Amino acid sequence: MEFENNTQQNNGEMMRLKDFKLMEELKIVLSMPSRLTELGEVTKKTFVKYVIFLSLLISVIIYLIPSIATVAGFGGFRSLFMEKMPAFKYENGVLTAERKFDMVLSGYHLYIDTSQTDVNPASLPSNGVYLAFGSKNASFIIVEKNAVNDFSNILYKMSNSEMFVNGMDNATFAEASTAFYFSSILFTLLYAVLMALKYVLLSMIYTGILWIAYKLSIKNIYEFEACHISFYAQTIGILLVSINKALGYFLPGMLASIAGIFITFRLISYTLRVYRDKNNSDSEEQGIFPGDNRWK
What is the DSSP letter of 289? Predict the structure, then answer.
């Protein structure tokens, strides 16, 4: 662990900020929760680097790896468009395809059924989020069917003319295969940005909920330190949810999310308890009154 030669003034008090190596941060958050309070004191640069790293890791696990695996299973984008997908063509405002098609990519469905002008959510084969193409319109649809509830909803609808140019067919997309590979990288980065915003916001929410506990356990703690601890404490839960999603929801998504939240709260409470117990122990060793060594 290295220390930067900088300090921060807050409420008239001086504190030295710490600079950890990335692998040491991971070691602490994954196996040494009693040291999470040390990560609360990291520099802004160190914290931002960790947020970027974790967000990119999540994006690669959830989006990029499954996408590459799926497309590779089809033999690449060119093979996907020319051999696996049904022959389709957009002409005179109408999309036609020789058969239905349903492909799952990173947990999302690409669905084609041009026998319908707009794909009816009730006709979709399974639960999930769909980009569904009918002959005239495309829709983003969410479907959730179970023994208790049968829920489906069209999130957004647009005309096929917004996505296709007259005369487009399989060969048109096959020729643009390189662009689709670059698009995968771009979507990975965009997804990482969204994940960074999501989990930084969640760290603020955790901090707000547990602020009294933070202050009772660490009296001189600053708000940014508590947010840092809350973010680092999410790591195990984040990885659990991400890996579960990449595996096609080995566990129900809601159950994995609840487990992740539970783990985060437990890590924060454990960290604060260890810190509080350590401070109480140090106070007893120093004696009841300043300069009193009776308890040493």
Answer: S
Cα 214 from chain centroid (whole Å): 26
| Token couple for 160 | 């096929």
C-alpha distances (whole Å) from 272 to each of 110, 181, 232, 267 are 46, 46, 14, 9
- CA-CA distance, 196 to 200, in Å (whole number)? 6
pLDDT of 73 reads 84
Interatomic CA distance for residues 22 and 4, integer angstroms:
15
Residue 289 phi/psi, 5° resolution? Answer: -115, 155
H/E segment holding residue 255: helix 253-286
What are residue 128's DSSP bridge partners?
A: 143
Q: Which helix (H) or strand (E) holds 226?
A: helix 223-233
CA angle, 256 then 261 then 264, to 5°: 125
Residue with tokens 């319908």: 116
CA-closest candidate to residue 106, choices 246, 239, 250, 240: 246
Q: How many whole angstroms separate alpha carbon 27 and alpha carbon 14?
A: 28
Give me the average pLDDT of each 10-residue run along the chain (296 residues): 44 58 91 88 93 95 86 86 91 93 81 93 85 92 72 85 91 87 87 94 95 90 93 95 86 90 94 82 49 35
Dihedral angle over CA of 36, 13, 296, 276, nearest 10: -30
Taken in order 104, 106, 108, 112, the sign of the CA dihedral is negative
- Cβ neighbors of 65 (< 8 A, separation 6 or more) are 246
Distance, in Å, from the CA atom of 184 to the CA atom of 192, rounded to the nearest integer, reads: 12
The residue with tokens 């202050």 is 215
Return the closest-CA partner of residue 247 out of 104, 57, 62: 62
Q: Is 251 helix (H, G, I), strand (E, B) or coil?
A: coil
Sign of CA dihedral 193, 194, 197, 202: negative
